[in-house]
Write a structure and sequence with these properties.
Elements (H helix, E strand, L loop, with lengths): L4 E18 L2 E22 L5 E3 L17 E12 L4 E12 L15 E11 L2
Antiparallel strand pairs: 1-2, 2-3, 2-4, 4-5, 5-6
Length: about 130
Amino acid sequence: SQVSNKYKFIDIPITLGYQKRFSNFLIQVNAGVSLNLTFIQEGKILNNLNSPISIDRFDPKKADVYKANAGISLIASLQLQMPISKTNYVFIEPNFRYVLNDVTTSGYQLSQKMSMVGSQFGIGFKL
């Protein structure tokens, strides 16, 4: 069986950063913790019998698999900025997140931890 799902986190990040300029580039390192306010799941996952079960928050028959709150995560990122004018710059920022606690409920037969790697890129504006 093939299933798909989505996980959404709404967090408050608390980070410290350090910047260093190299000629035309700026490098910024950020690290800290992220406090999860809510953890939302949508879609289906496979149960221990390899059958799809709903985890969608709007499904009244959804399986009680995940906690409503993921707890605390460790977060880190490295941003590289390059100016394109006096007030604008382009940037790329790879980032990492590691959720410290299991995100599954204690009554569920499997334990699941999460770590995520991502990247952001775009245009920044200095005010």
